[in-house]
Amino acid sequence: MFNFIFFIFLFIFVVNLKTVFFSFPIFYFFAPIGLFLFLKDFYVSKFLLDRKFLTFFFIIFLSLIISAISLLVNQIGDFFYVRQIYLYSIISFFYIFFIIKIFLINQNNDFDKLVLFFITSVATQLFFSFVLFMSPSLFDAFFSIFDTAIGYADSDAVDKFNEQRMIAIGNPFFGSAIINCFTLVLLAVHFKFSKYKKILIVLWVVIAILGIASARTTIFGITLSLIILLKDYKSSYRYLLAVLIILLISLNFAYFTNERIQTIIDFSFSFIFDFKNSQASDSASELVSMWNILPSKVSTWLVGDNFFIDQNGYYYKGIDVGYTRIIFANGMLGLITFLSMQVYLLYNIKFKRLVLSLIALLLVILFLNFKGLANLTFLILIFFMYSRLTSTDYGDVSKL
Asked: Is residue 68 within a helix (H) or strand (E), and if so which, with residue range?
């Protein structure tokens, strides 16, 4: 029962689910419980903060200092960058502290079980999104309660999107690509040491196929994870191939019998056979043009313009590239702290193969930010928190 409750809480967080009645995600309501538990541990440790937690908060503090300097230099700006990156990360920290502490640690679940829960939650999100795509009436009913997270689109635009592609609940489009790529690569680096290998292969196939349907950028995660899986665990060839063949035959049959399936397959794979005339080609051209927009002032390169969005609520300077969005917001100094926060958290996760895991997941972060703003902190925090709370020196005052 506790495992099921944990899965629900984890799903709500990973999917970033929020209702149409509030402007913030559902998990925000439960984060104060984590803050209370954190302060309780802080009191028990005689007001000494765990060193790993202290470093995490120190990096965020540095980022806030840089934002303050940017505000002083520019004398104008917005706080959307701080809110979307660092405030979100802090709230995520306390929420994860709550669910890991209460539902996982107390039930003696191991790292392998946590990885399985996480990957299953992503596969569940994509499968449920697929069901909604196949049934427009269910789609309308679901999103009459829950937010589509497509902030700039009205209901007509959302319906148009739903006619062309699958909208992942909670994290549509590039947000879905971030989760898919991270999950596929996490699965690959952990696969060798898992007790759930056959389940993980099925989940890999589900996330790979439906992940492309939600965001074509998922193909990077598929490619990198496949390289790791097939190089590292050759005996998985046959099982993976069998699952893929069965799924592809099913999709091939459905393609000629169901118009919705045909739409989703065309969106997912047409760029492979006719890239020049595909939507992916237009996206690539737009991305290249964005890379040509760079700061013209030294101060912007250092601390940014302190703007994250423009007056119309769209991306500042019309830029969607992760690196340049951060540079325009908080400069190179802000970019360094942004990346440092994620690398530090990754380094302190109890991976069986730390070097491979670090390199592979760092590649995911670096690649995705060439396409859009990819803040993976909220995902990495899940495994960092488990690693920290199960550490033998957590709560040991002499080692704080």
From this structure: helix 51-74
